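Hello,

Our lab assistant flagged a job as stuck in the queue for most of the afternoon. It eventually completed. Since we weren't sure the result was trustworthy after the delay, we are filing this so someone can double-check. Below is the sequence as submitted and the structure that was eventually returned. Let us know if re-running is recommended.
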Amino acid sequence: MNLMKKSEEQYKSIFYNLPDIYYETDKDGMISTISPSIKKYTKYTPEECINKNITLLFKGNKYQDMFLKNLLSKGYVSNYEMQLTDKNGKIHYTLVSANIKKDTIGNITTISGLIKDICDLKAKTEELYQFATYDELTGVYNRRVGMEFLKQELKKMRRVNTSLSICYIDINDLKIVNDNFGHDAGDNLILAIVQDIKSAMRESDILSRIGGDEFLLIFPGCKLDEVKSIWRRVQKSIKERNNMPGNAYNISASYGFAETDSENILLIDELIQIADKRMYTHKRRAKIEKLNHKPIKF
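-- returned structure --
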């Protein structure tokens, strides 16, 4: 086998076994060459793509114009994220590269490049984002993100001269429920209270889980009177839940409020310390009430 024949065979082997999609188009985007790997990702055969415009693979993609603008201005584009549409309309996340070839007088003759599927990478990235942002059990923000939101809302409060309130929440008797009824019951207790809080809070409010049985509820632009009104709705939902037949245990939560505004600015630690202290005061009084079987007014 001569050298030219050997090189041709090697090229064919690479072309037919490419994991990514190789393509060539004319200056108007009409496909002249495309690798067999196109079928793996789009269900289109190479024959169905030849002499079709490459926009067939990127239907309605809002980034097409920007991609083309970058390509024409620089002569190439590397790893540009685009959404590829398969034969059934399913979206695949891809990285697209392209390179312009010109003739001796500067006219575009060919545009060639690679399309790399990154769906698995996208899924992993999203999984990592979810893990880094949300509490796995409840779906609310985790401690790190909740504290960052509080930090940003305090900055915003100072800037626009408004107020901010928080509620520090501790679920009562979670350990007792876990020990006596199992951790699934404990998880259900947490989820029940989170559901009641989410149904009462405003769209602008922020709920985060900062510990096993502890939550922080942030109320931007909200004074204590309004916060207490929101919390009464939470208590009403919990009471209705407890009145349902067949409950194996009582659902309750201790809570403490704190407020700051642009005229009485508190630091994050100061604000949480006040709410935390008030929450423990409420918890102690609730225990006394439970022992004496007598309601205590707060």
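-- support follow-up --
The delay was a queue issue, not a problem with the job. The result is valid. The longest helix spans residues 268-292. The mean pLDDT is 89.
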